[in-house]
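Form 7-S
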Amino acid sequence: MNVKLKDIADKTGFSINTVSRALREDSRISEATRVTIRQIANDMGYIPNVVAGSMRSNRSRTIGIISADSANPFFAEVIQGIEEKARKANYSILLINTEEQAVNERDAIRLLLGRQVDGLVIAPVFNDEENLALYRELTIPYIFVGRYVDGMQDHSILHGDVEGQAMAVDHLLRHGHRKILYIAGPKNISNTIDRLQGLKQAYHAHNLEIDESYILSSSGHMEDGYARVNQALNRGLSFTAVVCFNDLLAIGALKSLHENSLSVPDDVEVFGFDNLAMSQFMQPRLTTVEVPKNRLGQKAVEELVRHIEDPAYPYATVNMKPRLILRESTLANHMDNNATH
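Output:
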């Protein structure tokens, strides 16, 4: 049966106009009435005519999501938050992965613009000139989630990369570590730049010089964590701790250390970053830096919808606070002021 607005009006006792407004989340209709009408409409199997609605409002009620790395569970958790908030705001999403490639990002933006999305949530690569030019030309709202590009930081929802990495390295330095192997992330994203800054900030705070030979680059994937630790050991580097750009690298590092008969944390301590759901199920359980991934996604949609519905709403950088999660891959198990088990 094709349920019409009139059918819902007859069932609820409200006018067709009230039903229509309630189903469009019109704020002129009380929240209680909107909930009642939505529930009855759902029970009746009502399917909204999105095309007709978008023609009336000149909006598609669709948000384009440009995610960076389909192999990284970090983005799955962020996207979950995006979906939850979009659903509550009565928006649909279209999702495209770029695999951290600038050209894929440009193609995704153009494709989504062709689909008439109302706004974009993007995990951008860093400072690609063609992409920067494209952002400047956009006539719809856009938010950068978890990253930034130069000159457009006010479009970003960030999560304390500098501070979080500095906290992790400071924790190790305060507990006597001086030979720390650092596995950095991909060079073309702002997170890598900021976390390297956090590493250097912590060393500077302890009046220590960094040995650049202990900083290794990577793609940010598990296999690189495994390979980089193997390479360091094969080069004869001596280290008492491994700090990784993310949890995926740390998982690979744990495997390499195990295969090389190095005990974690007794011989080598390991720090991740992101606090992926899987990190607490590693053996040993991974010490890491918490990033509020679900909240990050929700906040990105919350800000974007404000810009969609009020073009005059000002852009402003949002910074979320990181915190240490101390588990079994590090020896110190005391509670810092900004850490937890």
